[in-house]
Amino acid sequence: MDFSLTPEQELFAKTVRSWVDKECPKNVARDIEMQEFEYPFELWDKMSAAGFHAIGLPEELGGAGGDVLTQMILTRELARSLAGLTWIFGISSFCAKSINAFARQDVREELIPSLATGDIRVAISVTEPSGGTDLMGAMKTRAVEVPGGWRITGQKIWSTAAHVSDYLFLMARTSDSPDKAAHGVTLFLVPNPSDGLETRQIPKLGMRAVGSCEVFLDDVFVPDRYVVGEPGMGFYRMLSTLNNERIMVAALCTGILDAVLEDAVEHLNEREAFGRKIGSFQALQHFIADIAMWRQQAELLTYYAAWLSDQGRDCGIEANMAKVCASEYAGKAADHGIQMLGGMGYAAETNMQRYWRDARLYRIGPISNEMARNNIAESFGLPRSF
């Protein structure tokens, strides 16, 4: 068994790391994140110029090609500096892969080239205020068929970057199903702006400058051509791409582990107390050893899930395992990092507090770790728990 990256993948990782250190080092990322409601368009444009948005999209439509593992290497290297701000790249990347997989050919030909160049953005608008993880059971947003398209009314929440996106990748109920809540739900691409569409940013603990939004839809018209996949089958189309999002979260959290370990070791080698470098203190060395072991586990699980996805194999359980482990390890590591920095770990001028704030989200979304554990347990033949 070979657990190493190929020479090409190693070179790609080094190239991205050099780009990050030059174009968006940690001090710049920290300053961006502190501007809570200001989307970093300049950083988006730099990513566009670097070709990052094209990765994973077909070359015949202007993409750069590349497999899931390449996408995750990029996500990890970005997160080493950006932490949660990595979703500036990740959200539109995830949506682009879904559009490429399921949208009509004419829509693919219209949107994929512009997504690859970074000329347009797409945001996910799926979660509902009363639902959270109970996505299908709580689905109240409705779409009614009218001549030439659909009229959508409802509300979404936690739609990241919706306020600056050109389309919303949105799920709405189009028919009632007495037997199964997942039936009768349809995916749409909702142009933004549209009459009756409004977005509002939500103040939050971390991931500040990306912007997470409430979305309000009041009789918003969407043309037929922007139905993604077959009407009524949206949940099943979404399922096939959700694994990609969970692996991406795991890769992002692995990048946070990289950042915490790097910053902590640097601090322990510089800080002196009681007449010597604090890196010589056994308690702090154990923190470093724990973080290193957590990172190794997160990396292996993340890359294994990505590899399974690239092989076309079912990776749902592995994607959940990677997401749960990496998110919990990243949070614990950032907490250790704050402890090692002492009072300065609590200061906004250092990065540890930012890693900690960003990592906390990933135990909740895009699926709570509790729900992911339910899914893992059911794979061993246990009964459904909810």
Strand-helix topology:
Blueprint: H1 7-23, H2 26-34, H3 41-50, H4 68-82, H5 87-102, H6 105-117, E1 122-125, E2 142-146, E3 149-160, E4 167-173, E5 185-191, E6 197-201, E7 212-223, E8 227-228, H7 234-270, E9 272-273, E10 276-277, H8 282-310, H9 316-341, H10 352-361, H11 369-378
Parallel strand pairs: 1-4
Antiparallel strand pairs: 2-3, 3-7, 4-5, 5-8, 6-7, 9-10
Helix pairs in contact: 1-4, 4-7, 5-6, 5-7, 7-8, 7-9, 8-9, 9-10, 9-11
Summary keywords:
386 residues; alpha+beta; four-stranded mixed β-sheet; four-stranded antiparallel β-sheet; 11 helices; 50% helix; globular
Descriptive account of the structure:
With 386 residues, the protein is an alpha+beta fold. Helices cover 50% and strands 15% of the residues. The strands form three sheets. A four-stranded mixed beta sheet has the order 1-4-5-8. The mean pLDDT is 94.
Summarize the structure.
This protein has 386 residues and is of the alpha+beta class. It has helices at 7-23, 26-34, 41-50, 68-82, 87-102, 105-117, 234-270, 282-310, 316-341, 352-361, 369-378, and strands at residues 122-125, 142-146, 149-160, 167-173, 185-191, 197-201, 212-223, 227-228, 272-273, 276-277.
